[in-house]
Write a structure and sequence with these properties.
Largest sheet of chain A: 8 strands, mixed
GO cellular component, one term (chain A): plasma membrane
Number of domains of chain B: 1
Protein name (chain A): Peptide ABC transporter ATP-binding protein
Number of helices of chain A: 12
Number of strands of chain A: 12
Strand content of chain B: 15-25%
Family (chain A): Belongs to the ABC transporter superfamily.
Strand order of the largest sheet of chain A: 6-7-8-3-9-10-12-11
Membrane topology (chain A): Peripheral membrane protein
Keywords (chain A): ATP-binding, Nucleotide-binding, Transport
Shape of chain A: globular
Structural class of chain B: alpha/beta
Shape of chain B: globular
Oligomer: heterodimer
């Protein structure tokens, strides 16, 4: 099977005065059809820049983005909106309150992308499609006439998901879709997302810093640190035996109820500056609890450390 | 005598659409050196409670009954000048969003010095030195330089550390931390909570930790109080609460939270949502959502106290 999304050596640099800020630096990743991949990392690690390039609202500096075996990386963002691939890559945003137009009813929120990307529609046809989508995400049809402020958090999240699924995407990018929700609602939305993926065969790229949620929903996970992929692999392998010290620190920072023992890894200091970083020094050096001499003279590359489990570290952990 | 005692506190808000019964018969206590967690969904009254303790409730709030005693002094009857002496010195608060809680047009070192000048009886020079010392204690790198920085020049995690330095400047006996790490990365969250815990141990400071994150509460608190719709439904030592939740709401809250080792199918959502706190409410505010509801519940929850300091307010506790 060929990957649905295949990203090779993607870079995005932003000019800062005379220097360059390396937001995304030589990232390669792929997502298979129907697969759910988690993307985790701290704020400022380049997750959002990467996502904005994949949804093609931001142009890459270098590198290739192949979607369904078509190169889409070179198409300017302004023109991408008029290609058929626009409908096939959709996004669910972090905060359903901020991302829904407050002057649109739930019906219009869902119908708007359909009108723009699909169609032409008859009034009855559009109504039937919107009601169909509402049913799919478990939003009562009676609520379609309401405005976002008249809906609860969980209902707004459902509108956001229905809107993204409307144009029949093959890749759905979810940016922290449950972080604004209460735990009581979060579980329902997570189950809905999992069920929809299995039913519709959509691929998910799930951006989150809640590792417990990634573990529940994803098959593979990619860990980013300061613009680089530091570890990737099957969820079970990465969570059970993290090999990169950053992944290990990330996992040991999840509050647990003391069920899982083991010493904690605490990171000290602030991350290195992403402005004109040295190409020879590991980005994690200085915060890393291990840190060998080689880390300062040679940037570690991703290496295979077991089935599909890749790590970029000179001193991987067991 | 406990350091902080809240007795049968009821608090209402007058709004144009009716009276909101935000807190009803809330009783809690915090001892010296103890960390008490307050957990519950958003809208359950956690923040209202912490604001009431600090005496900074909204102008629309009225306390209809009850008392809040700090070292025996009734805060609800105390005059403004007594409260001014306490707040900042004896009791301090860390707010949810450090960027909005800090003064945006005053360097952070000056803000800390202001508190010291008001409460500690020091000279301006001593206050400045102490402010730098506090910044160093919360592990802000290069504290002399950072003391002159404005909040917008710092990251979210650093602003949160400044808030902690500000709150702890006069070594308060009680710290109220209202969602102190919401929106921060897990690694930063762990570092900040380690810091609060360390400082609490050093000076036997009591902490009231308000959070919606059960994992965080489990890891950091000695005892946990569970709130639902303005009622305290259960109070128990942390380990016992998780091992044997007695209130059906507590049990559901625990089983709906994603945690290591649990599958998606194992998450049990809580049906329904919080009741509207305006107008007539059922005596047990959880009854409409409760899977154990029976006619006898309409007589209202029955608070039961056992010898181990556990409290549960339910007719049919587990």
């Amino acid at each position: 099977m060929r990957p649905l999304l295949d990203v090779v050596d993607l870079c995005r640099r932003f000019p800062v005065g005379k220097s360059q800020l390396h937001a995304v630096d030589m990232i390669s990743l792929h997502v298979m059809p129907g697969e759910a991949v988690g993307l985790v990392g701290e704020s400022g690690c380049g997750k959002s820049t990467l996502v904005r390039m994949l949804t093609r609202v931001l142009d890459p500096t270098e590198g290739s983005i192949r979607f369904d075996e078509r190169e889409i990386g070179y198409i300017p963002a302004a023109r991408f909106t008029r290609t058929p691939d626009r409908a096939l890559i959709q996004m669910v945003f972090q905060d359903p309150t901020e991302s829904l137009n407050p002057r649109f009813t739930a019906f219009d929120c869902i119908a708007d992308p359909l009108r723009r990307l699909k169609g032409p529609w008859t009034t009855a046809g559009l109504k039937a499609r919107v009601e169909d989508l509402a049913g799919m995400v478990g939003l009562p049809v009676e609520l379609l006439g309401r405005f976002p402020h008249q809906l609860s958090g969980g209902q707004k999240a459902r509108v956001g998901i229905a809107r993204a699924l409307g144009p029949e995407p093959r890749l759905l990018i979810l940016d922290e879709p449950t972080s604004a929700l209460d735990v009581s609602v979060q579980a329902v939305v997570l189950k809905l997302l999992d069920d929809l993926r299995r039913r519709l065969g959509v691929s998910y790229l799930f951006v989150s810093h809640d590792l417990n949620v990634v573990r529940l929903l994803c098959e593979r996970v990619i860990v980013m640190y300061l613009g680089k992929v530091v570890e990737s692999g099957p969820v079970e392998a990465v969570f059970a035996t993290p090999r990169h010290p950053y992944t290990k620190a990330l996992l040991s920072a999840i509050p647990s109820r003391g069920e899982e023992g083991g010493p904690r890894i605490r990171l000290s200091g602030e991350p290195r500056s992403p402005i004109d970083p040295s190409p020879q020094v590991c980005r994690f050096f200085g915060r890393c609890p291990l840190g060998a001499d080689a880390c300062q003279t040679e940037m570690p590359e991703l290496r295979e450390m077991g089935e599909g489990h890749r790590v970029a570290c000179h001193t991987p952990m067991d | 005598m406990m350091l902080l005692e809240i007795d049968n506190l009821s608090l209402n808000f007058r709004t144009r659409s009716g009276v909101v019964k935000a807190l009803e018969d809330v009783s809690l206590s915090v001892g010296r050196g103890e960390t008490l967690g307050v957990v519950g969904e958003s809208g359950s009254g956690k923040s209202v409670l912490s604001f009431a303790v600090m005496g900074i409730s909204d102008a629309a709030a009225t306390v209809s009954q009850g008392a809040i005693r700090f070292e025996g002094l009734d805060l609800l009857k105390a005059g403004p000048s007594d409260l001014d002496e306490l707040r900042g010195a004896e009791m301090a608060m860390i707010f949810q969003n450090p960027r909005t809680a800090l003064n945006p047009i005053r360097p952070v070192g000056r803000q800390i010095a202001d508190v010291l000048l008001r409460h500690a009886g020091v000279t301006r020079a001593q206050a400045q030195d102490k402010a730098v010392e506090m910044l160093a204690r919360v592990r802000i790198p290069d504290p002399e330089r950072r003391a002159k920085a404005y909040p917008f020049e710092m990251s979210g995690g650093m602003c949160q550390r400044v808030m902690i330095a500000l709150a702890l400047a006069c070594s308060p006996k009680l710290l109220i931390a209202d969602e102190p790490t919401t929106g921060l990365d897990v690694t930063t969250q762990a570092a900040i909570m380690d810091l609060v815990g360390e400082l609490a141990r050093e000076s036997r400071m009591a902490t009231l930790l308000i959070t919606h994150d059960l994992g965080l509460a489990a890891e950091r608190c000695d005892r946990i109080a569970v709130m639902h719709a303005g009622h305290v439904v259960e109070v128990a030592p942390t380990a016992e609460l998780f091992a044997r939740p007695r209130h059906p709401y507590t049990a559901r809250l625990i089983s709906t939270t994603p945690r290591p080792g649990a599958s998606l199918a194992a998450l049990e959502p809580i049906p329904g949502s919080l009741p509207d706190l305006r107008g007539e409410l059922a005596p047990c505010r959880y009854s409409a959502r409760c899977h154990l509801y029976q006619a006898e519940c309409d007589a209202g929850p029955l608070p039961r106290q056992d010898d181990n300091g556990r409290m549960v307010a339910c007719r049919r506790p587990a």
